[in-house]
C-alpha cells in the first residue's frame, strides 16, 4: 500500500466512528498530512471534494501536483466496494483548486452540473452542492461554532447572523427557538439559507432574511436596531472589493469600526461571536480596551481539522 493510502486509512479509522457517533455526515478526511501530498480532502457521505493546494510558484516542476492521481487511486481503493464501485466513486470525486477570490468572483456560479443533496450535522440537515460553486454551502470548520451558538441561544431570543452565507449558523439558533435575522449580499445564498430552514422544518416566514451588504446593514441599523439582539455571529470575509460595495474591506484594517458598530446592536448582557480566517490576525487593543473579550479559537477547532491557525474566534461582551 502507498504512503497516502495508509494515511487516509488511518484517518478514516480515527474519524469514521466519531462522525457516526455524533451524526456528522460531512468532515475533513485529510489536511495536507504528508508534504508530498498538499491536498485537502472533504468527505460528504459517499462523495468527496479534493482541494489541490500545491503552489505552482514553488512547485514549478509540478512534482507535488503529479501526486494527485495517487491520492485519487488511494481514495478509490479505500472506499470502492460492492456498493461503491470504482467507476461510480471516481464520478463522485470533485477536484478544485483553491485560489484567492476577489470581488464578485466569490459569488459566481461555476457550472450547472452539480446537484444539491442533504447532509446531516448533529441536530440539523443542510443542502450542499459540491460542483457548482466555489464552496459547497457549508463551512465544515465552523461545526463547533454552530454547536456553540446552539448551546448559547435560548427560546425567544433574537439572533443576528452577519455575512450569513447559506444560513447554517442561523439554522442552529432557530432550532433552539431563537428568532433569527440573516444578512448576506448574495441572492443565491439568501435563497439557499431559506431552503436550509425549510429542510429543518423551520418556517422562513418566522425569521428575517435580508439580502444586503452587511456593512451597509450595520450603518443603517445603528439607530433603528440598537440593542436589539441577544446573540450575534459576525464572520466577515478576509478581504472584499466587490462592485456592490464602495471601496474595499480588509478585516484586520477595518475591525474596529466593524465590531464597534456590531456591538451597538447587541443587548446589555448579550454575546457577540467574531470569527475570521485571516492568518496572523491580531485583535486591536482599541477593542480589548472597550469590551470584554475572550479568545475561543482553540475551543472551536473541530477534531477533523489540524491547522490551529485556520481562523480566529473571539467572544465579545459589553464592559460592565
In spatial order, strands of the major sheet run 9-8-7-10-13-15-14
Number of E-state strands: 15
Helix content: 25-40%
**What's the story with the biggest beta sheet?**
7 strands, mixed
Oligomeric form of this entry? single chain
CATH superfamily membership of the largest domain, which one?
Vaccinia Virus protein VP39
Please give a handful of descriptors for the protein shown.
320 residues, seven-stranded mixed β-sheet, four-stranded mixed β-sheet, 30% helix, 2 domains, Transcription Regulator spoIIAA, alpha/beta, Rossmann fold
Question: What's the layout of helices and strands?
Answer:
Layout: H1 3-21, E1 26-31, E2 39-44, E3 47-52, H2 68-79, H3 86-91, E4 93-97, E5 117-121, E6 124-128, H4 143-152, E7 158-162, H5 168-175, E8 179-184, H6 187-199, E9 208-211, H7 214-224, E10 229-234, E11 239-240, E12 249-250, H8 255-264, E13 266-276, H9 285-290, E14 291-295, E15 312-318
Structural commentary:
With 320 residues, this protein is α/β, with parallel strands linked by helices. It has two domains: 3-99, RNA methyltransferase domain (HRMD) like (Transcription Regulator spoIIAA); 117-318, Rossmann fold, CATH 3.40.50.150. It is 30% helix and 25% strand. It is built from nine helices and 15 strands. It has helices spanning 3-21, 68-79, 86-91, 143-152, 168-175, 187-199, 214-224, 255-264, 285-290; strands at residues 26-31, 39-44, 47-52, 93-97, 117-121, 124-128, 158-162, 179-184, 208-211, 229-234, 239-240, 249-250, 266-276, 291-295, 312-318. Strands 9-8-7-10-13-15-14 form a seven-stranded mixed beta sheet. A hairpin with a 7-residue loop joins strand 1 and strand 2 (39-44). The radius of gyration is 20 Å and the shape is globular.
Amino acid at each position: 500500500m502507498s504512503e497516502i493510502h495508509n494515511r487516509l486509512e488511518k484517518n478514516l479509522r480515527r474519524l469514521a466512528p466519531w462522525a457516526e457517533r455524533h451524526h456528522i455526515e460531512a468532515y475533513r478526511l485529510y489536511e495536507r498530512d504528508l508534504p508530498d501530498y498538499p491536498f485537502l480532502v472533504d468527505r460528504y457521505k459517499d462523495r468527496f471534494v479534493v482541494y489541490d493546494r500545491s503552489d505552482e510558484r514553488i512547485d514549478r516542476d509540478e512534482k507535488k501536483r503529479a501526486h494527485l492521481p495517487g491520492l485519487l487511486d488511494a481514495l478509490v481503493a479505500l472506499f470502492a466496494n460492492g456498493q461503491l464501485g470504482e467507476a461510480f466513486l471516481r464520478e463522485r470525486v470533485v477536484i478544485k483548486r483553491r485560489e484567492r477570490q476577489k470581488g464578485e468572483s466569490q459569488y459566481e456560479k461555476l457550472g450547472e452540473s452539480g446537484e444539491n443533496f442533504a447532509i446531516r450535522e448533529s441536530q440539523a440537515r443542510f443542502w450542499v452542492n459540491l460542483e457548482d460553486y466555489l464552496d459547497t454551502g457549508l463551512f465544515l470548520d465552523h461545526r463547533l461554532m454552530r454547536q456553540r451558538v446552539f448551546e448559547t441561544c435560548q427560546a425567544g431570543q433574537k439572533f443576528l447572523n452577519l455575512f450569513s452565507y447559506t444560513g447554517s449558523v442561523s439554522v442552529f439558533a432557530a432550532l433552539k427557538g431563537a428568532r433569527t435575522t440573516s444578512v448576506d449580499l448574495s441572492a443565491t445564498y439568501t435563497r439557499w439559507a431559506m431552503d436550509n430552514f425549510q429542510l429543518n422544518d423551520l418556517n422562513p416566514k418566522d425569521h428575517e432574511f435580508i439580502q444586503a451588504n452587511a456593512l451597509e446593514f450595520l450603518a443603517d441599523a445603528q439607530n433603528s436596531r440598537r440593542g436589539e439582539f441577544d446573540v450575534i455571529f459576525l464572520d466577515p470575509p478576509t478581504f472584499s472589493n466587490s462592485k456592490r460595495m464602495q471601496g474595499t474591506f480588509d478585516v484586520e484594517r477595518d475591525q474596529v469600526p466593524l465590531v464597534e458598530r456590531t456591538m451597538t446592536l447587541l443587548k446589555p448582557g448579550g454575546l457577540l461571536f467574531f470569527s475570521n480566517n485571516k492568518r496572523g490576525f491580531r485583535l486591536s487593543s482599541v477593542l480589548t480596551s472597550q469590551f470584554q473579550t475572550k479568545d475561543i479559537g482553540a475551543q472551536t477547532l473541530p477534531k477533523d481539522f489540524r491547522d490551529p491557525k485556520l481562523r480566529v474566534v473571539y467572544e465579545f461582551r459589553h464592559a460592565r
